[in-house]
Amino acid sequence: MREKPSALLWWGLAFSIVALAIAVACAPSAPQGKKVATAVSDLAVAAQKTYVAPGDLDEYYMFASGGHSGNVYVYGVPSMRHLSTIPVYTPYPATGYGFDDESKAMLGRFTWGDVHHPSLSETKGDYDGRWLFVNDMNGRVARIDLRDFKTKQILGPIPNISGNHAAAFVTPNTEYSMMASRFSAPVPNVPKPIDSYASEYKGIVAAIKVDPASGEMSLGWEILMPPFDYDLGDAGKVASEGWMFWTSYNTERATGQLEVSASQRDRDYIAAVDWRAAEKAVADGKADTIGGVKVLDPKKVPGIVYFMPCGKSPHGVDVSPDGKYVIGSGKLQGVTTAFNWEKVQTAIRNQDFSGDEDGIPVLKYESIKDAEVPVGLGPLHTQFGPDGYAYTSLFVDSAIAKWKLGTWEVVDKVPMSYSIGHLSAAEGDTVSPDGKYLVGLNKLSHGRHLSVGPSQPESSQLVDISEEKMKLLYDAFTEPEPHYAQIIKADKLHPIEVYPKEENHHPLAVWDVKDAGVTRNGNQVTVKMVAVRSTLWPTSIAVKAGDVVKLAITNIEQTTDELHGFGLLDYNINVVVDPGETKTVTFKVDKPGVFPYYCTNFCSALHQEMQGYLVVDAR
Ligand code: K7E
Ligand code: CUA
């Protein structure tokens, strides 16, 4: 990474802004000149802290959920520049995702997904920069490889899971990506009357196994849960490693108008799952197979799940960096509760239970809580700093509260504009948070950007948390729909610039223009195409109506950023091939005529010459 610009430049910038402030302050209409000058110099400091000079690079990557856009968006922090869009559950013509055979196969029969929680792979509870997992409400989880920032696998829909919101949280060594059902349904899913919900519908928590070398995900196991709505999760770490926590609401087991019917009880629960014990129970043959998955029933396998009562209708649950505290609260409360993991373990040992839910023991709130921290109204999510501080987003108060673990005092608050949901601190959910930056991901934003009509631009706000007082630095547009994001130190990632030729084992890859061409087997036509500046070889393809064409394009460039595309307008074909990559697309030609194809990515001075013809004769 390059050096920061010289202090001289900063002083120059600060000086001009201060000069401007004085000019403004001295103007006849300026109210309280001194105050204006102070405010403007604060802005100069903020500008300095977010300014990434031309040619300079950001210190962090932020990976943000794109909600029902189905994408993940990558930003640089602190500049908040949008660097890249990673399509996951939705076709994205800009990169050809969802158009070639390989990515079409991953998407299956779906063309959208609702992404909520990105989860960077971890080693010993710290981001290791290998993969990013993201969930989709439709029971799926995807893996993005951070070597090339591409989606490599979509697993699911996972059987028995209905509304996979509480995912894709990884365990501290990425043994599993965990998920849980937000909606309960009969398991297995056969029609059952809604009025039998309380007894016949089930929730599910699921562990998706991750191969430690390749990241390949496969079905792990599941646990049958009472029909609550499991909302968010976090893996235990250090002191609580081996456990997984999920919030749940609607422990009333109500149906219909949940905003009323699911708010009757004072407390809902955080489910604490001993995933090592569950893993062992599955290995010992204690699971039943439902829908092709090994499912544990806690009634038959005691000791794998406990319920920790928590303020009603909770949202986030977050484990402190040392794993000693589990933070969770009702989302309409004015306090958040710090549960003491030591006390939870003692209560489990002493069987200090108040009852059970479908055979799952319920712990006593008073026995396991350490403190109710008066953070303010509407606590949703908590992130951590390196110095024992916690940061909680307050939806109702529209603010972030900073408070201290252990002393439980609230030391600072910064307003958010408006209605913050998630928040993300630099490596703020790992065993060693960085501090420095915090991003508030706001649900509403009216007036923070130029108006673009009724659908207001989403806004995220960058906050400086390097000092005692939090300082708002910057308002940034973020692509909708913002949920969670994670921020990782840039030097942990080492993205490649080209796909090395020797790693390309595609059976239809060709590396020399003389090997490009068309072969026929009955009505099956295979085209091996070479894309290289500035020709698509072959330059014409002759086929007959009724043929099935399999086109394999190899971009033989080994130069960074030399992408080529293949657009065949009439047939809705759009393939983008990175340097060293081979992609295929299979399509039936049913319309006779002459159809031009061309390169879609501006690749050279003669890019516009990179074109050819598909000639389809009538049969
Ligand atoms: Cu938007 Cu995590 Cu889906 Cu909270 S969730 S705010
Ligand atoms: Cu290749 Cu433009």
Number of helical segments with 4 or more residues: 8
Estimate the global geometry from the Cα principal axes.
globular
Helical content class = 10-25%
N/C terminus separation: 59 Å
Strand content: 35-45%
Enumerate the distinct ligands. sulfanyl-(tricuprio-$l^{4}-sulfanyl)copper, dinuclear copper ion
Report on the biggest sheet.
Answer: 6 strands, mixed
Radius of gyration: 27 Å
- Give me the secondary-structure category: mainly beta
User: In what order do the strands lie side by side in the largest sheet?
Assistant: 8-9-10-11-16-15
The poorly predicted ranges are 1-35
Q: What's the number of extended β-strand segments?
A: 42
Residue-averaged pLDDT, rounded?
94
Main traits of this protein?
about 625 residues, mainly beta, globular, disordered N terminus, binds sulfanyl-(tricuprio-$l^{4}-sulfanyl)copper
Task: List the topology elements.
Blueprint (H helix, E strand, L loop, with lengths): L6 H20 L6 H18 L9 E6 L5 E7 L4 E6 L13 H7 L10 E6 L2 E11 L3 E6 L4 E6 L13 E2 L5 E5 L16 H4 L2 E8 L6 E9 L3 E7 L7 E7 L8 H4 L5 E8 H9 L4 E3 L2 E4 L8 E7 L2 E6 L5 E6 L5 E5 H9 L3 E5 L2 E4 L1 H4 E5 L5 E6 L4 E6 L4 E6 L5 E6 L4 E7 L8 E8 L16 E6 L6 E7 L7 E5 L27 E5 L2 E9 L2 E3 L2 E5 L3 E8 L8 E5 L4 E5 L4 E7 L4 E6 L12 E7 L2
Parallel strand pairs: 11-16, 34-37, 36-42
Antiparallel strand pairs: 1-2, 1-32, 2-3, 4-5, 5-6, 6-7, 8-9, 9-10, 10-11, 12-13, 13-14, 14-17, 15-16, 18-19, 19-20, 20-23, 21-22, 24-25, 25-26, 26-27, 28-29, 29-30, 30-31, 33-34, 34-35, 37-40, 38-39, 38-41, 41-42
Helix pairs in contact: 1-2
